[in-house]
Amino acid sequence: MKLHIANKNYSSWSFRPWIAMTVKGVKFDEELTPFLVDGPNPKYAAFSPTSLVPVLEDGNVRVWESLAILEYLADRYPARGFWPEKRGDRALARSIANEMHAGFRALRNACPMNMRRPPGRIFQSEEVRDNIARIETIWTQCVERSGGPFLFGEFCNADAMYAPVVSRFATYLLSESKPVLAYMHAVRDLPAWKAWEKAARAEIAVIPRDEI
Fold first, then answer.
1. pLDDT tens digits, residue range 161-192?
2. What CA–CA distance (Å, rounded) separates 45 from 176?
3. Which of 12, 26, 158, 184 is a Cys-bridge partner for 21, taking CB atoms 3.0 to 4.6 Å apart?
4. What is each CA distance from 124 to 31, 162, 174, 194, in whole angstroms?
5. Which domains, and CATH codes, for the chain?
6. What proportions of the chain, in percent to the nearest 5, are helix, strand and coil?
7. What is the value of pTM for the model shown?
């Protein structure tokens, strides 16, 4: 099994399946093909139908798009807990994961994932503040409902979908909510998170569009 990713400092979409597979103990080979300064790398076309990353290769099976990869992993490893066990929890987890996949564009555009960036606040538009408030609500309600420390108790695909947002919240100091900060601490304390972050900080490539 091989996971194609891009720069660990910047590639939020790559981070999602990588942290899920690492936390759940799925063995895989990692192939990092970096972004170019001015956009996606043409080399992606050799393994990606969309010329984007991430892409998962499992024998003759090829899966792209972060959420599709996470769904595939849940099917491939049903005992690993990629989704919560209870049906109602799974429905809620899938709902907020899809909400992340399709939404929060203002936040994503204004606050690119950049793990090397020193923490500091930036201007927040009304749209960004609305995105932040919605994410705070999701995290707080889910952790209160489950008892934590993760959104549904144990780390699952929903947490993986929001992992890059945890990075954004930490980098741009987007919240002072105690429940939100506690959830962020739980995610950032994962050995998988620390391994990715260490590699991200060691990268030297600079993508100007993501250096806000």
1. 999 999 999 999 999 999 999 999 999 999 99
2. 42
3. 26
4. 35, 20, 9, 28
5. 2-80+203-210 (3.40.30.10), 87-194 (1.20.1050)
6. 55, 10, 35
7. 0.97
